[in-house]
Amino acid sequence: MQHDITKLKNIASQVRRDIVRMVHACQSGHPGGSLGCADFLVALYFDAMKRKEGFDMSGKGEDVFYLSNGHISPVFYSVLAHAGYFDKSELATFRKLNSRLQGHPTTHEHLPGVRVASGSLGQGLSVAIGHAVGKKLDKDENLVFTLHGDGELQEGQNWEAIMYASHNKVDNLIATVDYNGQQIDGPTSKVLSLGNLKTKFEAFDWKVLEVENGNDMEKILNVLDEAKSLTGKGKPICILLKTGMGHGVDYMMGSHAWHGKAPNDEQLAKALDQLEETLGDY
Q: Where is the Transketolase N-terminal domain (predicted)?
């Protein structure tokens, strides 16, 4: 399958500029994981997913996506805006009083592109499995995609859902783990080790794909192609995507300190110097 990698990289660069500007403007938010997942979400929305014009909550006749680690809302909102779900100018309202762009996505604001409130970690996979089962019942052959933090997998509800999905052969589901090894309190290995995630998912009878460089656009596109080719074969699919926390901004990279901290004026200027403005700032 042919991919326009240059176009996708340009979108990802602009998304990263949006992220640091949004978080700086309100002095609140989660830039580290957002920057790390920019390439994946751009690849997903502008290449891998089959999307219809407009937005409806049912998602019938199209692929759907659920963001489980909702604190990385800056990247989600930016990607949705660039994908045409709402005007990019609305990014300037991030985390403001009465804004539709709250710190964690909500559904009562009726923001196009958001199908579930994701403030509490560990619930997104259960919701996505329900939608995937619903698609099967409706004879809808489109797919359900999810994104999860690796620290989020310390939540037990995930493992009940993982067990359910394999037992019920929910093979129209592609769950991706942002495997950056960092969470708010430090490295996941020190907070509560996840052990060998690949072995764990395989023990629950999932098909597992791994990407060593989860910020390489070409590798992301290739693994999404492979994952889609494996759907409908009796097993749910997990992508372990080894991203870099804060990717694209040198002083944020690899540090849990930037999980939920806003840059000051000087740090913003430094970040923007490193991120090319490709599509115009909002």
A: 10-271
Cα–Cα distance for residue pair 282/280, rounded to 1 Å: 7
* 176 DSSP 8-state letter: E
Residue 92 DSSP SS3: helix
Q: Are 37 and 23 in contact (CB under 8 A)?
A: no
Asked if 113 contacts 85 with a C-beta cutoff of 8 angstroms, the reply is yes
User: Which of 28-42, 105-119, 151-165 shows the lowest mean pLDDT across its residues?
Assistant: 105-119
- pTM, two decimals, is 0.97
Mean pLDDT of the region 176-184: 95
- CA–CA distance, 118 with 71 (Å, rounded to integer): 8
182/172 Cα distance (integer angstroms):
29
pLDDT digits (tens, 9 = 90+) for 128-141: 999 999 999 999 99
Task: Tell me how far apart the alpha carbons of residues 101 and 219 are, in angstroms, rounded to a whole number.
Answer: 31
Residue with tokens 């690949």: 198
pLDDT at 2: 81
Whether 256 shows a pLDDT value over 80: the answer reads: yes
Residue 27: is its pLDDT beyond 90? yes
For 268-282, what is the mean pLDDT? 98
Q: Residue 74 CB: number of other CB atoms within 10 A?
A: 29
Question: What angle, rounded to 10 degrees, do the helices at 217-229 and 31-43 form?
Answer: 60
What does CATH list as the number for 5-274?
3.40.50.970
Closest CA relative to residue 99, chosen from 75, 127, 74, 124: 74
For residue 46, give the DSSP letter: I
Spatial distance between the Cα atoms of 62 and 252, rounded to a whole number of angstroms: 36
